[in-house]
Design goal:
The chain is α/β, with parallel strands linked by helices and 320 residues long. It has a single domain, classed as Alpha-Beta Complex (Spore Coat Polysaccharide Biosynthesis Protein SpsA, Chain A), CATH 3.90.550.10. Helices cover 33% and strands 16% of the residues. The strands form three sheets. Strands 3-2-1-4-8 form a five-stranded mixed beta sheet. Strands 5-11-10 form a three-stranded mixed beta sheet. Helix 6 packs parallel to helix 9.
Length: 320
C-alpha cells in the first residue's frame, strides 16, 4: 500500500541506569541528600539493575529485529556486557539531550521530555524502559498505521473519569504517578476539550518524533519548565502520558484500549512470573519493581528472564 511505514523510519529508545554504581550513588546522594527509601518516588526499585536490559535486547533481536537503531539513554554509564561498537547501538548521555539546568537528573519523567533531541533519531520511535519486553513477533504496523500515525495504547478504567475521583475520597491522596497522569489528562481537556480517562498501559509506546518535540516545546512548555529542576520525582511534575493524550485530541494518533492479553504488567512482588505470563501470553510485558518488592523477590527475575530469552543477542560481548 502506498505510504506504508518503513522499518527504516523507526528507532527504539531505552532509559537505563545502574543504581549499584558507587559513583552514581555518591552523585545522587550529593544532589538529593538521600540514597533510597521506601517511598513511591525514591525506592530502590526505581534504580536497581536486575540485568533486564540484556534480556530486553534479546527480545528485540528475536521479535522486532527490524528496528533501525537502538539508543540507550544513561547518566555517564553503560552496561559492561554491551557491545558498544555494534552498528545498531548508540549510548546517549544525559548531557547530550537535557538542558543544563536539569542536570544531574534522577527523575525519569524529566529525562523523557528530551528524547526527541537524541542526535540522528528517526522520524518515529518506540520508547521503552529497560524492564519492558517484546513477547511475540511484531511488525511496524503494530505500532503505527500506514501513514505513520501511532497507536496510543491505554488501559480502560472502571467508572471512567470518576474512577480516581472516587478513589481519592477513600485514600485522601492519590499516588504520585497516577496524580501526574490525571493532571496531564486534565490539561489536555482544558486545552483541546477532550478528556481521556484511560491510563498508560506502562509498556512500549510509539511516537512521531516531530510531534513529541512540538508537545515539549510548545503545547506543554510551561509545566515542563516548572519540572526541570525536580532532580527526583515530585508531585506536580509533567508526565509524558500527556503527549499521548495530546496526539489523540488533535487527531495525530489512534486510541487502542488494551488489557492483559495485549500488554501485561507483572508485579515482581507477586512472584510466579512465568505462570502469569503464560496465562495471558501478551505481545508486550513489563516487570514492575516498586517499594513493595524485596531483594528476595528480585532474585526471581533473572532466572525467569533467562528461561524466557536464553539465546545471547548480537548486542552482547562474548564472555560477559
Amino acid at each position: 500500500m502506498q505510504g506504508r511505514i518503513s522499518p527504516d523510519d523507526i528507532d527504539l529508545v531505552y532509559l537505563w541506569v545502574d543504581g549499584s554504581d558507587p559513583k552514581w550513588i555518591e552523585k545522587k546522594h550529593r544532589i538529593t541528600g538521600n540514597f533510597f527509601d521506601d517511598s513511591e518516588v525514591n525506592n530502590k526499585g526505581r534504580y536497581v539493575n536486575n540485568d533486564e536490559l540484556r534480556y530486553s535486547l534479546r527480545s528485540v533481536e528475536k521479535y522486532v529485529p527490524w528496528v533501525r537503531k537502538i539508543f540507550i539513554v544513561t547518566d555517564d554509564q553503560y552496561p559492561e556486557w554491551l557491545k558498544r561498537d555494534h552498528p545498531k547501538i548508540q549510548v546517549v548521555d544525559h548531557k547530550e539531550i537535557l538542558p543544563e539546568e536539569a542536570l544531574p537528573c534522577f527523575n525519569s519523567s524529566v529525562i523523557e521530555y528530551f528524547l526527541y533531541r537524541i542526535p540522528d533519531l528517526a522520524d518515529r520511535f518506540l520508547f521503552a524502559n529497560d524492564d519492558m519486553f517484546f513477547n511475540k513477533p511484531l511488525t511496524p504496523s503494530y505500532f503505527f498505521d500506514d501513514l505513520g500515525l501511532p497507536y496510543v495504547r491505554l488501559k480502560k478504567q472502571t467508572f471512567g473519569k470518576w474512577h480516581y475521583r472516587l478513589k481519592k475520597l477513600i485514600t485522601k491522596r492519590l499516588g504520585q504517578y497516577i496524580s501526574k497522569v490525571i493532571e496531564g489528562a486534565s490539561l489536555v481537556e482544558k486545552k483541546f476539550g477532550s478528556y481521556y480517562s484511560a491510563i498508560p498501559h506502562h509498556n512500549v509506546d510509539a511516537y512521531v518524533t516531530a510531534d513529541y518535540g512540538y508537545a515539549v516545546e510548545q503545547i506543554f512548555q510551561g509545566p515542563i519548565r516548572q519540572s526541570l529542576k525536580s532532580h527526583i520525582r515530585q508531585y506536580g511534575d509533567m508526565h509524558r502520558s500527556a503527549f499521548g493524550y495530546y496526539v489523540l485530541a488533535v487527531g495525530k494518533g489512534h486510541l487502542k484500549l488494551v488489557g492483559r492479553k495485549e500488554s501485561l504488567r507483572l508485579n515482581i512482588y507477586k512472584r510466579k512470573l512465568m505462570k502469569r505470563l503464560r496465562r495471558y501470553d501478551p505481545p508486550l510485558f513489563c516487570l514492575n519493581d516498586s517499594q513493595r518488592v524485596s531483594d528476595a523477590d528480585r532474585a526471581t527475575v533473572k532466572p525467569f528472564l533467562e528461561e524466557l530469552f536464553p539465546q545471547r543477542s548480537s548486542f552482547e560481548l562474548s564472555g560477559k
